[in-house]
Amino acid sequence: MEAPHSSPAVDSTGTPVTGTGTTGTGTPGTGTSGTVTLTVESPEQMQDLGRRLARVLAPGDLVMLTGELGAGKTTLTRGLGEGLGVRGAVTSPTFVIARVHPSLVQGPALVHVDAYRLGGGLDEMEDLDLDVSLPESVVVVEWGDGKVEELSEDRLRVLIDRATGDTDDERREVTLMGIGPRWAGLRDELA
What is the pTM of this model? Predict the structure, then answer.
């Protein structure tokens, strides 16, 4: 396995990232307000990205994480938890489906959901009361595509791409897609 890197995240051109990345204005008709793409070289950088992203999150924000098994979804969420100052170790909620991490700093709680084993859409998610938790919490849903979009018109979709197959490559391409007016200034917010 490759040793952890201590270099900063880089954008798709190889330029070090200090809170910005390459960006587009979204694709017409998709409802995407802004897109930022970053290259992350190690789990430590993924966790740091989560800490930086936490600075722009507010109560009511819905974050949807998509990526292969082992892509770094939980590592990113661990960084979000650190950045939000929540209680408890952020680990994968695969077997409990959802965990609530209350704030230790008078901020929003982190609701961390793993929808991998849930087959249905929002109807099956109703038992989790995410619609009740969302206004006062930051809700992060792993594997939420096609399941939780109806919770909020404004959401941040995070796609994490990694090399597949038998590889020790820790590099990840992370695409942050802001959907709705809340995320119109996504690039500026991450700066």
Answer: 0.78
